[in-house]
Specification:
By secondary structure, this protein is mainly beta. It has one domain: Porin, CATH 2.40.160.20. Helix content is 13%, strand content 52%. The protein contains three helices and twelve strands, in the order H-H-E-E-E-E-E-E-E-H-E-E-E-E-E. The strands form three sheets. An eight-stranded antiparallel barrel has the order 1-2-3-6-7-8-9-12. Strands 4-5 form a two-stranded antiparallel sheet. Strands 10-11 form a two-stranded antiparallel ribbon. The longest helix has 23 residues. The protein is elongated. The model has no long low-confidence stretch (mean pLDDT 83). InterPro entries: OMP/PagP_B-barrel. This is Outer membrane protein beta-barrel domain-containing protein. It comes from Kryptobacter tengchongensis.
Length: 235
């Protein structure tokens, strides 16, 4: 067997060593990082304005009030004119009495009575009001403060106190005047389908002729402060 010349032998060995070295470096060299970005970027969501997105412009509900002369009950219908303006029609059922009235119980019959009382008085103001929502862009929709002002006609219905309540209705008399009121309040909650809120209203209901609740003490002003709870639905 002929042996390879020394130069050729060294040349072949060098090529083999170089090739093995390249393969070894290729295996040990880490792969380049993936160009794909694995970081998830979350964008800030837009402001949550649930009330305005459903387009519920009409509302109906009831008002429960504590007034100067006792309790009052009312109902309303509201319509949204523009972004922050609402038109509302309200009718309330209020009782009126003299501030000096004192109710006693007859020990013989168990019946209650008020000395010197002449008339029972029921006041029914019908008001058309404008409501303005405050701070719409500054406050979240779960708190919606508002201002309101209204006016309209008022029926004052009187019945004789000396007769039993239901039988006295046929002897009732109607008196007519006007009413004005202003108020401030707020609706609470995010559900646009329901309405709940609290307001303070001041009613001005003058009647210049005066109506007697107690004998000799005609009442000429039937308004006052009302603390009102409101419940309703939007549609």
């Amino acid at each position: 067997m002929r042996c390879l010349p020394m130069k050729k032998f060294i040349f072949v060995v060098a090529i083999l060593i170089f090739g093995i070295s390249l393969q070894s470096q290729d295996k040990k060299q880490p792969r380049p990082p993936s160009t794909r970005d694995t970081i998830i970027v979350y964008e800030n969501p837009p402001d949550f304005k649930l009330i305005d997105t459903l387009g519920l412009r009409k509302a109906w509900g009831i008002d429960l009030s504590v007034a100067n002369n006792g309790f009052a009950f009312g109902t309303f219908y509201r319509y949204q004119l523009k972004d922050v303006y609402f038109l509302q029609a309200t009718i309330n059922f209020m009782t009126a009495k003299d501030k000096n009235e004192v109710e006693y119980i007859d020990p013989w019959t168990g019946q209650t009575f008020v000395p010197n009382k002449v008339n029972r008085i029921l006041v029914l103001p019908l008001s058309i009001s404008l409501q303005y929502r405050l701070f719409k862009d500054e406050l979240a929709d779960n708190l919606r403060p508002f201002l309101m002002a209204g006016t309209g006609p008022t029926l004052i219905f009187t019945t004789p106190y000396e007769k039993e309540f239901f039988s006295s209705l046929k002897y009732g008399k109607a008196h007519y005047t006007v009413n004005f009121y202003i108020g401030v309040g707020a609706y609470i909650g995010l559900d646009p389908r329901t309405i709940s809120g609290l307001s303070i209203r001041y009613y001005f209901i003058p009647y210049s002729k005066g109506i007697e609740s107690l004998r000799g003490r005609p009442i000429k002003e039937f308004g006052g402060i009302n603390l009102t709870l409101t419940f309703g639905i939007s549609f």
